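Design job #97: recover the sequence.
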């Protein structure tokens, strides 16, 4: 029973750290998007793309070094997997923001926030936890079972 409680604590701690990392990355993402889109007049989809790119770089670095404690994985291996997940995330955020903004007729920052929350929960965290930052030991244990 103690082992299970320890696992739950580890899961909650990892999720909390991942959310903190996501908040920092989102702050960078939204700041870049806001400055480009609202103050510099860059088209909102381009601003959204560049913001997501900036936030994604920050998120990967924090997650690699602090959140997931990737054991037995080289930076290059993690970077390739992160890039795959990140590319899909950027596409979902960019096109999702465009679709919500154009169909709902609301300000793109509001659209971006709605889409970002959905993508973060349903795509980013799940794929980072199960694919990008999965430790080599965990992967080997799953193959054995």
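Job complete. Output follows.
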């Amino acid at each position: 029973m103690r082992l299970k409680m320890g696992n739950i604590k580890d899961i909650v701690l990892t999720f909390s750290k991942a959310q903190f990392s996501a908040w920092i990355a989102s702050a960078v993402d939204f700041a870049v998007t806001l400055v480009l889109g609202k103050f510099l007049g860059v088209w909102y989809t381009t601003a959204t793309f560049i913001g997501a790119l900036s936030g994604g770089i920050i998120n990967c670095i924090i997650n690699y070094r602090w959140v997931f404690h990737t054991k037995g994985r080289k930076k290059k291996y993690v970077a390739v997997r992160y890039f795959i997940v990140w590319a899909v995330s950027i596409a979902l955020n960019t096109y999702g923001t465009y679709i919500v903004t154009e169909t709902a007729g609301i300000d793109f920052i509001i659209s971006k926030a709605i889409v970002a929350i959905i993508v973060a929960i349903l795509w980013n965290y799940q794929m980072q936890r199960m694919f990008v930052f999965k430790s080599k030991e965990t992967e080997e244990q799953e193959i054995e079972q």
